[in-house]
Every structure is written in structure tokens, then in C-alpha cells.
């Protein structure tokens, strides 16, 4: 009976919802970063080898890749902080750490701050997910263009809204058949990174959406603890007055 009681207390101190959200966010960051690195490397190859862009022209690819991976790493770190906060406001830990005065006020402040940051991060990654979906759609269009082209014909990307000369006079038209085959192979290779990037970003969005629910619940619990504490103090004062 004692073991069962201790086991129940231990399980009540584990923030399963926060752990699930953390797994989604951290796993999504890992998948997103790995496939983003591979995919952007292939984009550099396409731009430099098939469209003959200079290294200075395509340096924005490395900058974009580094920036997105850095932002994803920061969000993974924030997810771990939210997990720590989840442990602090769950079960007996909440009673020991967040029951009285200053700890309770700090807990409510941190809970409100995390809710705000989670909402902002969710908006950012929702936009990243939409961009990843648009890029995957563009890849599908280029793949179908490769599949439906007639033998000996050229590939002209200006039919898809890309203006010639938008990058230092680059012409988005390929007529060399070997270059076309290499371009289509690279486009086909991009399927796996494209789907991986979209899946990773979607997992991060779901993780932050789950976090908003758990953080809101924790904030309500802390407010409830404050209400119980105030009523307990009032009851004790009434008892002393009657005595």
C-alpha cells in the first residue's frame, strides 16, 4: 500500500503534457534542422551548377540556413525551460515551491511570460510551415515540368513567375540536355528534404500549440493555489478570533 501511494505521488509530480510537448518541439527542431541543412545545400548546387550563379549571389542561402537553425535551437532551449517550469508546478513540487507569497508570484509571472513567448513562437513557426508548404508545392510543379517535358526541349522557369535577371542577370532557361537531366535529378532528390522540413516545422507548431494549453492550465493552478492560500489564512484568523 505504501509503495502504491509513493508511486501515485511520483506520477502526479510528472508533467506528462509538458513532456509530450517538449518531445514534439525538440524532435521537430532536430528533423527541421537536419533536412534544412541538406535541402539548402542542394539549392546551392542547383543555383551554382545549373543556373551559373556566382558565390556572392547565393551567399544568402547560407545566411538563411544559419539563421533558421539558430532560431530553431533557441526555441528548443525555450522548450526545455518550459519543461522545467512544468516540473515545478506539477504535483507535490507545486505545493513545495509555489504555494506561498513570493514563489507563487514568481510562478505566475513566469507562467504568463511563457504563455506570451509560446504564442509568439507559434505565430513565427506557423509562418515558416506555410513557407515550407509553398516551397514543396513549387518543387512539385518543377518535378511535373521535368516529367512532362518533350525530349530535346528547354526548361524555362520564367513560366512560373521567376523573372529573368532577378539575380544579377541570371537566365532561368536551360537548354543543355545533360544540365536538364542533372537539374531534374536534383529536384527529385529534394523531395525527402522538402517533406522533412515541412514535417519538422509542423511538429514544432503542434508542440507550441500543446504548450499553450499546458501553460494556461498551470497558470490557472497557480491562481487557484493563491485563492486557497488566502481563504486558508482568513479561516485561521477567524478561528483565532473565536478562540
Kindly describe this structure.
The protein starts with a helix and ends with a helix. The chain has a two-stranded antiparallel sheet with strand order 1-2. The mean pLDDT is 76. The protein contains 7 helices and 2 strands; from the N terminus they run H-H-H-H-H-E-E-H-H. Helices cover 80% and strands 2% of the residues. The chain has a domain of 168 residues. The chain is mainly alpha-helical and 243 residues long. Helix 5 runs antiparallel to helix 7.
What's the SSE blueprint?
Layout: H1 2-12, H2 16-50, H3 59-88, H4 92-97, H5 101-148, E1 155-156, E2 173-174, H6 177-189, H7 191-242
Antiparallel strand pairs: 1-2
Helix pairs in contact: 2-3, 2-6, 2-7, 5-6, 5-7
Order of helices and strands: HHHHHEEHH
Helicity level, as a percent range? over 70%
Radius of gyration: 27 Å
Q: Strand tally, please?
A: 2
Q: Indicate the mean pLDDT.
A: 76
pLDDT < 50 stretches:
none
Strand order of the largest sheet: 1-2
Q: How would you describe the shape?
A: elongated
Class based on secondary structure composition and strand pairing: mainly alpha
Total helix count? 7
Largest sheet: 2 strands, antiparallel
Gap between N and C termini, in Å? 39 Å
Q: How much of the residues is beta strand, in percent?
A: under 5%
Organism: Lingula anatina (Brachiopod)
Protein name: Neuronal membrane glycoprotein M6-a isoform X2
Keywords: Membrane, Transmembrane, Transmembrane helix
Transmembrane segments: 14-37, 68-89, 109-138, 189-209
Amino acid at each position: 500500500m505504501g509503495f502504491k501511494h509513493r508511486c501515485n505521488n511520483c506520477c502526479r509530480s510528472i508533467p506528462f503534457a509538458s513532456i509530450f510537448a517538449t518531445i514534439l518541439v525538440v524532435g521537430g527542431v532536430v528533423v527541421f534542422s537536419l533536412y534544412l541543412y541538406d535541402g539548402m545545400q542542394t539549392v546551392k548546387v542547383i543555383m551554382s551548377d545549373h543556373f551559373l550563379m556566382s558565390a556572392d549571389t547565393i551567399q544568402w542561402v547560407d545566411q538563411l540556413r544559419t539563421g533558421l537553425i539558430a532560431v530553431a535551437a533557441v526555441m528548443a532551449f525555450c522548450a526545455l525551460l518550459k519543461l522545467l517550469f512544468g516540473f515545478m508546478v506539477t504535483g507535490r513540487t507545486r505545493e513545495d515551491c509555489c504555494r506561498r507569497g513570493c514563489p507563487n508570484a514568481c510562478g505566475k509571472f513566469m507562467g504568463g511570460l511563457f504563455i506570451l513567448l509560446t504564442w509568439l513562437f507559434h505565430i513565427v513557426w506557423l509562418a515558416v510551415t506555410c513557407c515550407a508548404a509553398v516551397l514543396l508545392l513549387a518543387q512539385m510543379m518543377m518535378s511535373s515540368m521535368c516529367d512532362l517535358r518533350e525530349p530535346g526541349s528547354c526548361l524555362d522557369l520564367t513560366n512560373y513567375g521567376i523573372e529573368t535577371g532577378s539575380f544579377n542577370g541570371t537566365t532561368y532557361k536551360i537548354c543543355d540536355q545533360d544540365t536538364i537531366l542533372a537539374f531534374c535529378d536534383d529536384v527529385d532528390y529534394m523531395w525527402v528534404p522538402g517533406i522533412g522540413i515541412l514535417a519538422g516545422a509542423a511538429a514544432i507548431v503542434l508542440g507550441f500549440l500543446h504548450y499553450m494549453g499546458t501553460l494556461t492550465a498551470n497558470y490557472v493552478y497557480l491562481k487557484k493555489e493563491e485563492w486557497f492560500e488566502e481563504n486558508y489564512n482568513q479561516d485561521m484568523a477567524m478561528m483565532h478570533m473565536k478562540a
